[in-house]
Amino acid sequence: MKKDFDIAIVGGGPAGSTAANLLSQAGLSVIILEKEQFPRPHVGESLLPFCYDIFQKLGVLEEMEKRFSRKPGAIFCDKNNDAATTYCFKHVVENPKHLSFHVRRDEFDLMLLETAETKGAVVCQNTRVLNTNLNEDIATLNCKSEKGSFDIRCKFVLDASGRDGLIARQNNWRTPSPDLDRIAFHSYWTFKTTPTDIKLGMIRIIYLDDEKKGWIWCIPVAEDKISIGLVVDQKSLGQERKKYKGSNWQQDFYMHEIFSSNYLKSELADAERDDKIWVNGDYSYSSKTKYGTNFSMIGDSGQFIDPIFSSGVFIAMKSAELVAEVLPNYLNSSDIKILDKVYSTISDGYETVGELINLYYNPNILDFSSVGNHNDINNERYDEFKSAYSLLHYLLAGDFFERGHIYKNFFKELKDGRKFERWQNLVNWESNESGVFHSKNENCL
C-alpha cells in the first residue's frame, strides 16, 4: 500500500465516508483509516430530508430507496399522550425530498464506506491512528493494524473520528457542555401487529417529566421493527439509580421509563424486545479549535450536541460536504480564510440546532407537542397553526445551514415572548431555483 496521500481521513463513519467520496471524485488521493471492522452497531437511525441532495452527490440515493424505510415526518407528544403534534415534511418540501429515511446504521455506514471505496478512496479497517504529527508541512499519522505499525503521510488530515475526537483529545481541546449532560439507553423491538404511525414511518418523540430533562425516541427502522431510545439527564440518572438494585439496573431503568409512557405502554403490548440495552454517554461537547493549516474536524469529532432532532448524521455529512468542497482550492492556495469561511457556516449550523434544542427543553416557551394539540396523523388542523407549523417544519427538516443566520432573531424574539406571526414572511419564503418550499395542508404521504 502506498504511504503518501493528499488527504488522510481518520474514521469511516458518515462524515469520513462522505468526505472521502467527494474528495476522490474531485481527483485527490484519499485514505480512510477506520479503527473498527464494518458493519458495526451504531445508534442514530433517523435521518433528515436535507440529507437528500448529499445522497445524490454520493451516488447512493437509488440504493437507499431500495433498502431503507421512509420517514414522512415526526410526532411530538407528552408522556401521557394527551397532547400530540404531527409535523409532516411535505408541508414545506414540495418534491420527493420530503420523504426522508430511517436506517439501520450498521448497513447504512457500510454502504457509505464501500461507495467511497468505489469512488477511489483507499479504505483501511481495523486500523487505529495512535498519534498525529501536524507540526510539519506534510502531516504524519502513526497507525497500527493487525499487520503491524506503519506511518501515513499526507498534505491534510480530516478528523472524522466521531466521539473519539482524536485530535481534540490529543491536544486537550475538548470541553463538555454541562447544560446538555445526557446519557442514552436504546434497544430494538419487534411488533406482531405494527401500529399505524409506525407503518407510515413517523418518528415519535415523547417528553419525559421535567426533572429528568429527557425524552424517548421511537424510530421505525423496518416495517415491524422499532428502535426505542431513552435520553435522560446525568444528574437525574444519579438519583434514579438509587431505586434499582443489581447488575441489570440499566435494563430495569430503561424498561420502567419507556413503559411509563401511555403511548408505549399500549403499543408495546404486542411487541418484544429483541436486542440488548445499549448505553451511550459523552453526549455534548465541543473542541475549542476545529481546524488549522493542515487539519480540520468534521462530524462529531469537533462537536456533538443532543440528538433530539435527529440532526447528528445530517450535520456530520453536511460538514464533510462543505469542507470537501473547498479543500481542493485550499490545498492549491493555502489561504486559511477559505477554512475560516466554511467553519463559520458550520458554526452557524450548530448554533441553530443548539437554539432549537434549548427550545425543546423549555416547553414553557414552546411545547412541541401542544402546538397542534391533536392526534390526527394527517394534521387536519394545520391551517390553524400555519405560521408555527411551517417554521418548525423547516427546522425539523434540517434547514440549519442555508438560513441559520436568519433564525437567530426568531429564537431571540420567541424567548422574549413575541408571536410566530412576526415571522410570516420567513414562513412563506421560496427557493430562488424551483420554489421547493411552501406552506399548504396535505397528507404526510
CATH top level of the domain at 4-46 and 104-175 and 288-334 is Alpha Beta
Main β sheet profile? 8 strands, mixed
Structural class: alpha+beta
Measured as a percent range, the helix fraction is 25-40%
CATH topology of the domain at 4-46 and 104-175 and 288-334: FAD/NAD(P)-binding domain
Low-confidence stretches: 374-385, 423-442
How does CATH name the architecture of the domain at 4-46 and 104-175 and 288-334?
3-Layer(bba) Sandwich
Number of helices: 14
Number of strands: 21
| Distance between the ends | 49 Å
- As a percent range, the share of strand residues is 15-25%
Oligomer: single chain
Tell me the radius of gyration: 22 Å
Q: Mean pLDDT score, rounded?
A: 85
Can you identify the CATH superfamily of the domain at 4-46 and 104-175 and 288-334? FAD/NAD(P)-binding domain
Shape: globular
Summarize the structure.
The chain has 445 residues and is α+β, with helices and mostly antiparallel strands. The chain has 14 helices and 21 strands. Among the domains are: 4-46 and 104-175 and 288-334, FAD/NAD(P)-binding domain, CATH 3.50.50.60; 182-280, D-Amino Acid Oxidase, Chain A, domain 2 (2-Layer Sandwich).
Task: Describe the model.
The chain is 33% helix and 24% strand. The longest helix is centred in the last third of the chain and has 25 residues, at 336-360. α1 (14-25) runs parallel beside α10 (312-333), α10 packs antiparallel against α11 and α11 (336-360) runs parallel beside α13. The chain has 14 helices and 21 strands. It starts with a strand and ends in an 18-residue tail after the last helix. The protein has helices spanning 14-25, 52-58, 61-67, 105-118, 166-170, 196-199, 234-241, 249-259, 262-267, 312-333, 336-360, 386-397, 404-415, 424-427, and strands at 4-10, 30-33, 69-71, 73-77, 84-88, 100-102, 122-124, 128-133, 139-145, 148-159, 174-176, 182-191, 203-207, 215-222, 225-233, 271-273, 278-280, 285-287, 291-292, 295-297, 303-304. Strands 1, 2, 7, 8, 9, 10, 19 and 20 form an 8-stranded mixed sheet that branches. Strands 4, 5, 12, 13, 14, 15, 16 and 17 form an 8-stranded mixed sheet that branches. Strands 11-18-21 form a 3-stranded antiparallel sheet, with no helix packed on it. Among the domains are: 4-46 and 104-175 and 288-334, FAD/NAD(P)-binding domain (3-Layer(bba) Sandwich), CATH 3.50.50.60; 182-280, 2-Layer Sandwich (D-Amino Acid Oxidase, Chain A, domain 2). The radius of gyration is 22 Å and the shape is globular.
